[in-house]
Amino acid sequence: MKVINLISGPRNLSTALMYSFAQRDDIIVLDEPFYGYYLQNATLENDHPSQNEILQTLEFKEEKVVEEINLLSDSSAGRTGKKNVFVKGMAHHYLTDSPRYILNWENVVLIRHPKKLIASFSKVIHTPTINDIGIKKASELFLFLKNNEKTPIVIDSDELLKNPEAYLKKLCNLLKIPFSEKMLHWKKGGIPEDGIWAKHWYTNVHNSEGFALQKSSSQDLPKHLEPLLKKALPYYETLKNNVLINT
Predict the structure, then answer these.
(1) Number of domains in the chain
(2) Domain carrying residue 188
(3) Which one of 8, 49, 210, 227 is at 20 to 30 Å from 202 when CA atoms are compared?
(4) What pTM does this model have?
């Protein structure tokens, strides 16, 4: 079986995509399993909501997280009923420049225009940095994978929202898994796989029953965050040039 590794930034519809894959009977989803490792080892400029609780409950040794993910996807271990594993992860949670273990996974990079991302993210963390929003790291991971002949699929939140069914069919085709109609809808409220940080970040998804345009898409960008947008745009454009188009 395979590991489908979603590399995203925050506020990118990554949680909605995780919910989508969670509706399938043939996939196990994991919500940001490297978050504890990141909080334990990164130099943080901002505290994260529920930071202490996350550190107390999540594994913070990178090699152990990788081992558990690979074990879940190992059908010979007899633990998953031959299910694929979908990992929802944040790009900036990868602290090394060359996380070679992802070369064995099917990688998908999810992007969103940084103006929308930053405006939404700043509602929870008011002064984010380029490292907080993940777009720089996502660009670097894209190049790392490409240079190792493992070019990831790049998808865009705005493209997804144009026609979720058509876009998910394209994505599933590239991942070589069958599309399921179940991926288009879910019940309101959380799912058991939600991280303990869900109460701070997942309100929109908990109130939804499928993919929908978020209010944050039309929020104004606070003036003090304009320099951050300027920094983020070149990395976004690098990835945008490789994005899967919804036609």
Answers:
(1) 1
(2) 3-240
(3) 227
(4) 0.92
Burial 188-203 (b: 16+ CB within 10 A, else e): eebbeebbebbeebbe
CB 133 within 8 A of CB 2: no
Measured in residues, the chain has a length of 247
Decide: 13 and 157 in contact? Cβ < 8 Å. yes
Cα 204 to Cα 149: distance, rounded to the nearest angstrom: 37
In the block, tokens 């998910």 appear at: 168
Beta pairing, strands 106-111 & 153-156: parallel
CATH number at residue 72: 3.40.50.300
Residue 245 lies in a domain: no
Q: What is the mean pLDDT of each run of 10 residues along the chain (247 residues)?
A: 94 94 96 95 83 91 96 65 88 94 97 92 87 93 97 96 96 97 95 91 90 67 93 96 89
